[in-house]
Predict the 3D structure of the following.
Amino acid sequence: MFVLVYAEAQGCSQCKLLAEQSTEVGEASFGSNINMGILYLMAVPYILLFLLFRKRIFRFFKAMKTQ
């Protein structure tokens, strides 16, 4: 049980780094920094998928438009 609790309490390295830096900068900037880090980590896979499948995506929307 201790292993599961410890594994669930881990965060990503970006979040950990921002949390450690927030003590130096102040409380107000912590929220915006952590949100920007999460948005960055979320956006990269979507951008890569779009670049890989852009022709299929455009074909799909053209087919939807004609129906």
User: Anything to note?
Assistant: The chain is about 90% helix and 0% strand. The mean pLDDT is 75. The first helix runs from residue 2 to 8. Residues 2-66 form one domain.
